[in-house]
Structures
1.
Amino acid sequence: MLTGLSLPALLEELAAPREVPGAGSALAAALAAAAAVVQMAARLSPASWADAAGVAAQAEALRERAVQLVDEDAEAYRLALEARAAADERARPEQRDWALGQITAAAAEPPLALVRLAADLAELCAAAGERVEPRVHADVAAAAALAAAVARGARALVAANLTALAGDARVEEADRLVAAADAAARSL
């Protein structure tokens, strides 16, 4: 379980010469860190902002979900790699392709959840940016920029995991969410 590791140990796991864990887990950890920064900024702002506690709670919920995605992404991708390696070449091609399609589609779910979560965090940052204490405004802007970057990176994983066909609804959703996250980050 990656989430039980110290930060240096997690980074060693990410740097190891194997495919899992990969970028999805790294992106989820980065998003959790960005949410923690927003939570900190809101907690430092209760005197000037009545909704600070509610925003801190929202940031905490986003952080907790991002932490879960660190492990979920690694597990889904591991299962997809194992399924590809174990694909029965003797099976009828349509059966084999259908089974592989199902497992790779499942591997796209954690990155898609990450795109959604990153867009939510970027929008929370945009809403909080002008309300937090001035001394932590730059922290919120940095968290929004990180959330937008995570959304872009996770979108690339969605497309790669799906070996996406043109017009795939999940990729189109990810594209819309990336645009929203980018706009939210730029508003700060």
2.
Amino acid sequence: MAETGYRSRVAKKASKQVRPASTAAAKKKTSRTRSSPKSSASAGDAARIAHARRLADALEKLYPDAHCELDFKTPHELLVATILSAQATDVGVNKATPALFAKFPTPAAFAGATPEAIEPWIKSIGLYRNKAKAIHESMRAVVERFNGEIPRTMDELLTLRGVARKTANVVLSNAFGINVGFVVDTHVERLSKRFGLVDQAANVAKIERELMHLFPQDLWGKLSHQLIWHGRRACKARGSTCDSNPVCAQFGPQGPEGVTKASCEGERVVITLQGRPVTPGKHPGTSTNSRT
């Protein structure tokens, strides 16, 4: 009788440990079909990147020869020209720089002058007094701290007066072929929003981070020029020719690439990729507070 009781307890314990096949299969099926928020975010991010790459291919076909439109022969000339280009046109800068560079042919020549001596040569450019001071002080720092050579790192360039990330990115990419960031000027900012690459509320720092995320690093330099060329020649702030341009027709607010409910006047962009709305500027691992 004791043996019978023992066998009964063992059988009862075993029945608790063995899960019915139907229950196990049901739970396994449920785990397969349930998608995590992380996998959904990854899918949306992949769709955004694919959308951006198709845009890059289209811009390459339209502007294969896009380049920096500031005239320069040396890294220091490009640095000076880029400082002058703030709130000014490249055309206006290019008119002033030949005589300026003839008068001050080296960083040492700028450093040995005074802001007042530089001013007459750039008087046709807006904010020329402040820019003369920036040029003089930056060239003096180049001579005194960098042996007369324009530095080749972002951190070092940012120590120069008149140099922020945009200017540093221009110099590094075009003078040295170094891509550490993405140039974001007014054209790049405008087009990034029109093409739905970033949210309409994104600031310049956030736009740069997003573009660096969406495009391969080896494209950052040339693609910035292609966006700038497109912004100057077709997708302008006013008087745009978007209706007749193949890139705008495909990727613009009303094009078939999924950008809807927007116009070239800057309405909020809503993107639908693979049949789902995707918020520009949202991708895994990116914080809006990260350094630029």
